[in-house]
Design brief:
With 245 residues, the protein is α/β, with parallel strands linked by helices. The chain has a domain of 149 residues: Rossmann fold, CATH 3.40.50.150. It has seven helices and nine strands, in the order H-H-E-E-H-E-H-E-H-E-E-H-E-E-E-H. The longest helix has 19 residues. It is globular and about 50 Å long. It binds S-adenosyl-L-homocysteine (SAH). S-adenosyl-L-homocysteine binds next to strand 2, helix 4 and strand 4.
Length: 245
Amino acid sequence: MRWRPFRRGRAATGSRTDDDAATRERRRMVAEQIEARGLRDPELIRALLTVPRHAFVGAAENAHAYEDRALGIGSGQTISQPYVVAAMTDAARPRSPAGWRGARALEIGTGSGYQAALLAELGADVVSIERHADLAAEAAERLAAAGYGPERIEVRVADGTHGAPDAGPFDAILVTAASPTVPEPLISQLSPDGGRLVIPVGERESQALTVVERRGDEVTRRRMEQVVFVPLIGEHGFAAEDAEG
Ligand code: SAH
C-alpha cells in the first residue's frame, strides 16, 4: 500500500508540497494540542513531529489527520486523539536513563498502527496485538511503508488480553482499548524493575486512564484523566456480546 496524499488532489503522494504541508500541520498539532497541555518530553515531541499520522488514517479522514480529536479507521474502530496518544506514551515512559531507547514495549489494540509507530520512533522494540486480522494486516503494511518494518514492530493477531508471554517482560505496556479491569496476565508481564502499564479502566461509556507500575512484587496504581475508548474484547476484557451488540 502507498501512503495516501495528505491533501487529496493537491499534490502527488510523497511530493515536496505534500511533505511540507504535513510537516506544518504536525508542528501546529504539537504546539496547540501537546505542548499547550503541558507535555514537554523532547524525545516525545520529536517523535510526534516525525511520525506521519496522516499515513495511518484512511482516505476519508486524511484531511483531518492532525485535528484535536479521534477519527474512524474502519471496522468500527478509532485512532485516538493526538493528545491522548501523547499522554499515554508519556505516562508509560521507562524511568531508566536510556528512556525508550532499547525498551521492550507491548501495545494491545494495533488499530491504525500510529501508536506503535510512535513507540518505535522513540526507540522501543514493539510487539503490537490486534484482534481484527484485517486491521492488523493493513497496519503492518502502513507501518512497513512508513519505515517501521517487522524488525522494529511485530504485529500479531490474537486476543491481546493474554499479552505476549513469550516476548516479555515489558518495560511498557499500552492498552489502547477500554477494559472493565486490568487484565492479570498483563500485570505479570510487566518488568519487575519499574515496568509501567497504561490502560483505560471503567465502564463501556467512560474510563479513567490508569497507570500500573510494578517494582518487585509491589504493584501501585495511579489514575489520570477520564477518556472514552472502544472496548477491549477478550477473555480478560469485555465480552463480545456486551460490547458489540
Ligand atoms: N492504538 C490504535 C487505536 C486502537 S483502537 C491506533 O494507534 O490507531 C482499539 C483497537 O483495539 C481496535 O483496533 C480493536 O480491534 C482492538 N482490540 C479490541 N480488543 C482487543 C483485544 N482483546 N486484543 C487485541 N486488540 C483488541
